[in-house]
Amino acid sequence: MTETENRAAGKFDAGRAAEYAVQSRIALAGYDACHELAACLLAADLGPGRAARILVAGAGGTAQEILSAARLEPLWHFSAVDPSAPMLELAMAAVGEAGLAARTTPMLGEVADLPEEPIYDAATLIGVLHHLPGLPAKQAVLAALAARLKAGAPLILAGNRHAYASKPLFLAAWGERWRMQGASSNEIAAKLGKIRQGADPPASDQEVARLLTQAGFEEPTLFFSSLFWGGWITHRRA
Predict the structure, then answer these.
(1) Which residue range(s) make up the domain with 64?
(2) Of 208, 203, 202, 201, the residue nearest 223 (C-alpha)
(3) Does any domain span residue 66?
(4) pTM listed for this prediction
(5) Cβ atoms of 65 and 59 closer than 8 Å
(6) 115-167 confidence digits (pLDDT tens)
(7) I need a surface site. Which of 8, 58, 168, 215 has the fewest CB within 10 A?
(8) CA distance linking residue 140 with residue 93, whole number of Å
(9) Count of domains for the chain
(10) Cα–Cα dist 149/90, whole Å
């Protein structure tokens, strides 16, 4: 794992992993809806009822990508990849509770650690890209995904875009989300500081599209937006 990857994974230690399921749903209004739509898009794209291998990059935490998709498609098998051991353990606990352990292979590490073979029918990268500092790290993970997807395979990409300081109203609305949940002013300031710590979202929807096309994907289509968050579907170019 590179130094950049180690820093990104290190942010998700045992303490942050434990609060992830609650905090992610406050920070992202529509958390569950985004994951459900992602599953529906993949099922519609691949065709319902067929077997498929799905690469879930950054699966740690709630494993919501797997839980949502598995409800729709009983013949899908999931490879759950994450560089953070506490986050991957949390995800696999959720997978086990849902009775999906036999359909999910956990892999501690990066997508680049997997064999470079185009064996996957689809992939997801949700809530990851904005944690990787700098364009080279973002380009690297997208290229690694492209190398492991079959030609024409769909990719769901979702995460924050826009520099946080560039959207002060959105930042203030984030604070109001926590106030709605009973957080104090000091708690809100601390939570906003944690969100901004080390995060480096793509600058715009256009930059997301550039990153994807440079990595070997088609022009993406936006299917979900919530404050800073965006969700796109694209396909590996043939």
Answers:
(1) 3-162+201-235
(2) 208
(3) yes
(4) 0.91
(5) yes
(6) 999 999 999 999 999 999 999 999 999 999 999 999 999 999 999 999 999 99
(7) 168
(8) 29
(9) 1
(10) 26
